[in-house]
Amino acid sequence: MVAGFLFLPLLLLGSVTLGNQTMLPVDNLFQWQPWQSAAAELDVTQPQNGLLTDLLIENFAWKRFAVDSIKAGDIPLWNPYLFAGMPFLATGQHGMLYPFSWLFFLMPIPKAYGWYALSQLWLAGTLMYVYGRILHMKRASAYIAGLIYQGSGFMLASTAVFPMIIGAAAWLPLLLACIELIMRDWRLEIESQAQPSTARRPRLTVLWVALGSVALGLQILAGHIEITYYTLLIMGMYGGWRVAYCAWRNRAAYPLRVLLLRPMGWLLAMVLVGLLLGAVQFVPFYEVGQLNFRSGETTLAQVRSYAFPARRLLTFALPNFFGSPAQQSYVDAFTGEAVALPGTSEWGIKNYVEGGLTWGFCRFSLSCSVCLATGLSVIGCRLAVIGYQVLRPPICNLQSALCNLSDGHRPAFLRR
User: Fold this and answer.
1) H or E element: which one contains 8?
2) Residue 8 CB contacts under 8 Å (≥ 6 apart), including other chains
3) pLDDT (tens digit per residue) in 300-312
4) Which of 61, 258, 283, 303 places its Cα 20 to 30 Å from the Cα of 318?
5) Global pTM?
6) C-alpha pair distances (Å), 293 with each of 62, 92, 290, 298, 345
7) Are 326 and 48 in contact (CB under 8 A)?
8) Nearest to 324, CA basis, from 307, 310, 306, 341
9) Which residues, including other chains, have CB under 8 Å from residue 51's CB and lie 6 or more apart?
10) Please, which pLDDT band fits residue 200 given cuts at 50, 70 and 90?
11) Which residues are CB-contacts of 201 (< 8 A; sequence separation ≥ 6)?
């Protein structure tokens, strides 16, 4: 089942992992000199997708600098090639402290992008499957949940531009799973105290706290502090709801203080240890953030203006309703012919990466179709077995009767 989560990533990224292509949008370089001077000679008119430029002029530059520095025996604390020099390792978005980023040291950087993306999409699907199973979902249901998560619009759009985002977002299901397991152990502890005669099951709370701490530390090292912020918010709301629910169910038997303090202590310990594990990246990043020229310059009104307009709800079901930066033409609905555009077809308020909000109906339908076909196959096999068991006695009786009526020369299909 876990290997099944490689299907979608390989389907999307096969050419940049097993093939000879790269995820880097190299054609975007022809927007600037000196490459622009050779654009006409090489018949390059416009980039296939101009929105992917950050992957090339930012992320690739970070990876190249980090790899070259390590190979030269230097720790890349300072980048002298930007402005008059600036901190590098402290900024975090390079993600070079993240274990999966070590792929960039083991293979050529253009090829490593494909394998990194594949590994993170696989990880996201697998961890969502694990979370589903912990919630007592059936295997097929948990598998569908994993496919939807790894194939969501947010994950796929971020894969193409910001590898550090999917690296951070992939760990959310495991963190929620650890919260669930901690609360489950606490519920079993309460039940065993209420009924001392029942057999005590082993408690693994410390293990779940340790696992969640490691997951949070890795999530921080992935290199996108906004996703860490969102993850902590979701963990807080989810953990608060689970603690409140457990306390409400057992409020008559135990004091509220007893019901709240211990589980909240375990959850807080998981978060604090996780922050400590990621402190090697988080603390320097916080220090650099205090010196950022944007600090304190954004007003609440500006932040609220970043919100999605109401019409953007359409993209939950129709992600290309406002066009796509990768499409430079449209199909005429009356003639069926492709009509070229001077730019791209995108005309939405938010760009395609920031507005990647699709619910994933197509992926959900595909997943349901696969599971339905599998289920029908299993049902068909079971019905065949049942039918064989039901029909075998009369068929055997009929065979014996035909054999008795024959002159000893049995038909070939009735011979034993």
Assistant:
1) helix 7-17
2) 121, 125, 147, 150, 151, 363
3) 888 888 888 888 8
4) 303
5) 0.81
6) 20, 17, 9, 11, 34
7) yes
8) 341
9) 161, 325, 351, 352, 353
10) low
11) 188, 192
